[in-house]
Amino acid sequence: MQSDKLVEHGKFIVAAIDFGTTYSGYAYCKHADYNKNPPIIKCNTWIEGETLTSKAPTCVLFKPDQKLHSFGHEAIKNYYDNPDKLQLNKYYYFEYFKMMLYEQKDLTTETYLEESIKEEDVKKRKKMKAVDVFGAVIGYFRDQLLGAIKNSGEHWFTEKDVMWVITVPAIWDLRAKQFMRESAKKAEIAHDQLMLALEPEAASIHCRRVPVGVQTEGDGRKIIAAMAPGAKFIVLDQGGGTTDIAVHEVTGVNTLKEVHQACGGHWGGITVNKQFYNFLEEIFGKDVINSIKETNPSAFYSLLRNFENKKTSFKKEDEGEPEGQVTLRLPVDWTDTFKAIKSLSLAEAVEKTNFKGRVKVNKDKFRIKNDLFRTFYDYSLENVIRELEKLIAKKELKGVKTLLVVGGHSASTVLTEALKTKFKNIGMVIPKDPGLAVLKGAVMFGFEPGTITSRVARFTYGIGTTRPFREGDPESKKIIVDGVEKCKDVFDKHIEIGQVLEVGEDKYLEEHEYVPLYKDQTSVNFNFYDTLNKSPKYVTDDGCRRIGSLHFQLTDGMTGKRSMALKINNSGTELVSLITEIATKKQSTGYFRLPSESN
Ligand SMILES: Nc1ncnc2c1ncn2[C@@H]1O[C@H](COP(=O)(O)OP(=O)(O)OP(=O)(O)O)[C@@H](O)[C@H]1O
Ligand SMILES: [Mg+2]
User: Fold this and answer.
1) Is residue 479 part of a domain?
2) Which family does the entry's similarity section mention (predicted)?
C-alpha cells in the first residue's frame, strides 16, 4: 500500500467526516495505523439511551445568537423533549438538511435554510444562512475530532498535520460540492488541507482493502478485495437521502477506474419515512398533525422515532405474511388531539378510510398490516430498480456480475431481497456494517487519493463566451463590438458528458483561447455552465445551468497580445483551472465561485 503522497505533504493524520442526510459520523487514522493490515481506523461512538452507535442523526440546534447549541441525539432531545425548558421559539432547529443541497435550484452562499419544523405562517419561519448551518456542523465535527486525537495521547500533533476529508454524493453537481468547500472554509479548515471524497468511491476503496466483513455469496469471485484487474462491479450506496451508483473496474492491486458516470437519485431510506408520513396525513389530517407538533412535539417525535425502529427491524420474511402486522406505540396525545379536532374516535375514523381492515387502533397500539407497511418502501425500491436496469443494459456494463451494496439502507432485507429477485444473474456483496463503509473508505481515500485513476464526466461543461456572428446564429444573439458583429451566449464546450477524465494534478484538458472584453481589465470572470446535453450551442439552451464562475487575476494592464488560454482539470473531486496570458506566458490558477448576486 502506498501512502507516500500524504507523507510528502506532511499530513500524518487523516480525519474524515461523513456528512450524511440522516446520520453523520467521523473517524480518523494515523499514518502508522494505516499501514497495518487491516488499517486501524477509529470511528467515534455516540450514546443513545443505552445503545452505542457509530453515527448520529444529522440534526442540529442553534441558540438565538445562531451559535451551535447541540448536535445529534442531544439536539433531538433538546428540541422535542426540551428538558432544560429552553425558549425554543427563539432557537433554530434543522434536521436532515443535506437534502436541501440538491433540492435548491439556485444554491449560493447566500441561500437561506428554513427551520425544519415549520410555522404555518411563512413570515414567522426562522431561517439561517445554509452555509453557516453546514459550516457550524463541520466545525463541531472538527473540534470533536481534534479533541479525540489529542485524547488518544498524541500531544505532538498540530492541526497542520491533519488532512481533512468530507464525503459528498457522487451524483452531486459541482455547485453542491463547492458549497461544501465553502462551508468547510467557515469551519476554518484550510483549502489545501481538505479533500472531498465521493461516497461510492470511498465505499469501493474500503471494500477493496478490507476483505474481512464482506459477505461472499457462493464463489469467492464476489469478494471485492480479491477481484483481479479487468473485473468490474457496480457500487450501490443506498443511504438515507441519496441513491448513489458508480461502476468501477479494477486496474491494479490498489487502483480502480470509473467506467460509467455516477447515476442515481434521491431515493434513500428517508423516502420510506416520508411515505409513512404521507400515510399519517391521510389518516389523521394535516390539522391534527400540526396541532400535535405544536403542542406536544415530544409525542409527535415519539411516533416517528418508533416508526424508524420498526422500519429497521422489518424483514423480507414479514412480507410473506401479509396478515402479520407491525405494531407502533401511539402516544395518547395523537388519539386525544384527533378526537378533540374531529369529534370522532380515531379507531372509528380509521374504519371509514380506505385503510379499513389494514390499520387498527386499540388504545395506544397502532397496528399496520405487513402488506401496507411494505408499500412504504415502494417509491425507493421502484426507482432504484429502474435505475439499475437502465444502467445494466448499457454496453459499458457488459460482463458486470457483481453488485456491491453499501449505505445504511442496505441493511434492509426488503431492499436486498428485492434486488436479488430482480437481478438474478448478478451476485451481491454487502459489507457487515454497510453504513460505515463510506466513512472508513473516506479515511483511506485521504491517504491514497490516487486510488481512482480515471472518472467519467457526469455533465457537459463549458464557458459562456462571445465569438464572431455566423450564418445560422439567431438574430437575438447578435451584438456589435467595436463595429464588428458578434454572437453572445455561445456555449464553449470544455468537457463532454461521458468523457473519460484521467485523474492527476497535471491532467488538464485542451486549452481554449479567450480575449478579455476591456483593455484595462485586471481580473476576469468566466461564467461556467453544465448541461446533460452532449453538444449545446448556446448557454441559454434548455437544460444549461450557470453553476458558477471561474475567477482569475490578470497581469496589470495585460499589454501586447491580450489573449489568454484557459484549461481546466475536472478529474478530481474539485474543479481546477489555469490561464496562461499568451504574451507573457504568465500563469494563474482560477478560483471557482458559486453564483451569487455580486457575480
Ligand atoms: N435495517 C435497516 N432497514 C432499513 N433501513 C435502514 C436499516 N438500517 C439503517 N437504515 C436506514 O438507512 C439510512 C441511513 O443510511 P446512511 O447512514 O448510509 O445514510 P446517510 O449517510 O445519512 O445518507 P446519504 O448518504 O444519502 O447522505 C436511514 O434512512 C435509515 O433509516
Ligand atoms: Mg451516506
Assistant:
1) yes
2) Belongs to the heat shock protein 70 family.
Q: Which ligand is closest to the CA of 23, given by its number? A: 1
State how far the Cα of 209 lies from the Cα of 253, in Å rounded to an integer: 9
Ligand 2 ion local residues (Cβ < 5 A) = 20, 239
Buried b (16+ CB within 10 A) or exposed e, 535-548: ebbbbeeeebbebb
- The pLDDT, as a whole number, for residue 7 is 52
**Alpha carbon of 257 to ligand 2 centroid (Å):** 21
Query: Would you state the pLDDT for residue 4?
Result: 47
Tens-digit pLDDT profile for residues 66-91: 999 999 999 999 999 999 999 999 99
pLDDT digits (tens, 9 = 90+) for 444-467: 999 999 999 999 999 999 999 999
**CATH, residue 140:** 3.30.420.40
Ligand 1 centre to CA of 311 (Å) is: 11
CB 493 within 8 A of CB 530: no
Per the structure, the complete domain to which residue 54 belongs is given by 4-195
Q: Does 134 lie in the same domain as 260?
A: no
Measured between alpha carbons, how far is 468 from 252 in angstroms, rounded to an integer? 48
d(CA 516, CA 522): 10
467 lies in some domain: yes
**pLDDT number for residue 227:** 87
Question: Ligand 1 in contact with 451 (CB < 6 A)?
Answer: no
pLDDT one-digit tens code per residue, 323-374 = 799 999 999 999 999 999 999 999 999 999 999 999 999 989 999 999 999 9
* CATH number of the domain enclosing 502: 2.60.34
- 551: phi then psi, degrees, rounded to nearest 5: -110, 130
Question: Quick one: 35 and 137 in the same domain?
Answer: yes
Q: What is the pLDDT of residues 117-166, one digit of tens each?
A: 866 777 778 999 999 999 999 999 999 999 999 888 877 788 899 999 99
Residues 123 and 20 in one domain: yes
Q: Report in angstroms the alpha-carbon separations of 525 from 475, 517, 593.
A: 26, 11, 9
Would you say the CB of residue 449 lies under 6 angstroms from ligand 1?
A: no
Q: Does any ligand 1 atom lie closer than 6 A to the CB of residue 240?
A: yes
**Residue 242, ligand 1, Cβ within 6 A:** yes
Atom 5 of ligand 1, nearest CA residue: 409
Record the cell numbers describing residue 508, joined without a space.
488538464
Same structural domain, 478 and 398: no
Instruction: Give the number of whichever ligand sits closest to the CA of residue 409.
Output: 1
Shared domain check, 284 and 322: yes
Give a yes or no: residue 578 inside a domain.
yes
Query: End of a domain among 375, 395, 411?
Result: 375
- Neighbouring C-alpha atoms within 13 Å toward the C-beta of 168: 26
Quick one: 150 and 166 in the same domain? yes
Query: What's residue 37's pLDDT?
Result: 82
> Is residue 421 located within the same domain as residue 482?
no
Residue 25 CB less than 6 A away from ligand 1: no
